[in-house]
Amino acid sequence: GDSVTQMEGPVTLSEEAFLTINCTYTATGYPSLFWYVQYPGEGLQLLLKATKADDKGSNKGFEATYRKETTSFHLEKGSVQVSDSAVYFCALRANTGNQFYFGTGTSLTVIP
Amino acid sequence: KAGVTQTPRYLIKTRGQQVTLSCSPISGHRSVSWYQQTPGQGLQFLFEYFSETQRNKGNFPGRFSGRQFSNSRSEMNVSTLELGDSALYLCASSLGGTRMNTEAFFGQGTRLTVV
Questions:
Q1: Which SS3 state, helix, strand or coil, does residue A1 take?
Q2: pLDDT band at B12; cut points 50, 70, 90
Q3: Using CA atoms, how far apart are residues A98 and A84, in angstroms rounded to an integer?
Q4: Which residues of A touch B53 (CB under 8 A)?
C-alpha cells in the first residue's frame, strides 16, 4: 500500500545552517506530494506541494523536488531561522481517492 | 476567507462516555476528512465525507463514526471511550471532486483527553 518514510528526528540546527529532511514514498501510479508544518498546539499548515515528477515546490525559502526515479521528496532550506522550529510532515495523496498518507514527522529546533 | 474551524478545542471525557466533535470546512469545500494524531501512531486517517456520503474509511473500530450535513459541516462521534482514544483529532477540508491534485487545509484540531 501507499506509505511515506521520513527522516527520524529530532533535528537541532544553529541559525543560518542548511536544512535537509529526507522523505521517500511508496505508491502506485503518480501521487501528489506535500510538506506540512505543525507548530506547538496547532494543526497542520501546508508548506509546499508538487503534483508531478520533476515539479519543484517552494515557499518561505523551503524547497522540495518530486523525484520519481528515487521516489523522494526531500525538504531543503538554505538558511534556517529560529522561527522555523516546528514539526515537519511529508505526505502523499494517491491519484485515486482523497486520503493523505503521512510520515512520522521530524521535529526541528533552531537555536540562535 | 475563513479557515477550517473545529470545535471544541479541548475536551476531557471519562472512559465509557461518548463524544462528538465538529468541523466546519472552508466555504465551497465539499470534502471533509478526519485524522487522529497520537505520539505513538502519528497521523492516521479515520474517514472522508464528500457530499454527505462517506467516501473512504480507515482502519478504526466501529466506535468511530461520522456524518456530513448538507452545508458540508461534519461531525465525528466516538462511543464508549477508551484511554487510548486520547489524541488530537484533525479535520481536513478540500475541494474534493475529481481534482485530485488539490491540497487539504487543516483545522487546529480538538484535543481529546480520556481519563
A1: coil
A2: very high
A3: 28
A4: none
Residue A15: DSSP 8-state: T
Q: What is the structure's pLDDT at A112?
A: 95
Here the contacts of A42-49 (C-beta below 8 Å, separation 24 or greater) are: A42/B108, A42/B109, A43/B4, A43/B6, A43/B90, A43/B106, A43/B107, A43/B108, A43/B109, A44/A89, A44/B90, A44/B92, A44/B106, A45/B106, A46/B103, A46/B104, A46/B105, A47/A75, A47/A88, A49/B103
The span from the CA of B7 to the CA of A69, in Å, is: 43
Query: Which residue in chain A has the smallest CA separation from B110?
Result: A43
B65: nearest Cα among B77, B56, B50, B79:
B77
Percent residues over pLDDT 90 in chain B: 84
- Helix, strand, or coil (residue B85): helix
Give the one of B45, B50, B106 whose C-beta lies nearest to A44's C-beta. B106
Tell me the pairing of strands A106-111 and A11-14.
parallel
Closest CA to B58 of A103, A26, A99, A92: A99
In tens, the pLDDT along B60-107 reads: 999 999 999 999 999 999 999 999 999 999 999 998 766 555 789 999
For residues A76-92, one letter each, b for 16 or more C-beta atoms within 10 angstroms of the residue's C-beta and e for the rest, the string is: ebeebeeebbbbbbbbb
Q: pLDDT tens digits, residue range A34-81?
A: 999 999 888 999 999 999 899 999 999 999 999 999 999 999 999 999
Instruction: Tell me if chain B has a CB within 8 Å of the CB of A89.
Output: yes
